[in-house]
Design a protein that fits this description.
75 residues; mainly alpha; 2 helices
Length: 75
């Protein structure tokens, strides 16, 4: 079974929203500056969406740990 590219993109975006909030909070705790923390979060959201999407598509081609489901075969 494979995920469609659109599903991978939606997963990447939802994960990045979560990750970006985390990055902003950590950046604020480290720097004490909200403007700088938001700037860091804004930059990393785009780079990490791309990286996650690429990572997801590569892993979609790896068979390790996958077994075919019964739905994959019809007679």
């Amino acid at each position: 079974m494979r995920d469609k590219p659109d599903r991978s993109l939606l997963k990447a975006m939802s994960w990045r929203a979560t990750g970006t909030i985390d990055t902003i909070v950590i950046s604020f705790l480290v720097t004490g500056k909200i403007k700088l923390a938001v700037s860091i979060g804004f930059i990393e959201v785009f780079t990490k969406i791309f990286l996650f999407y690429a990572h997801e598509r590569i892993w979609n081609k790896v068979r390790l740990g996958r077994t075919p489901s019964d739905d994959d075969y019809t007679i």
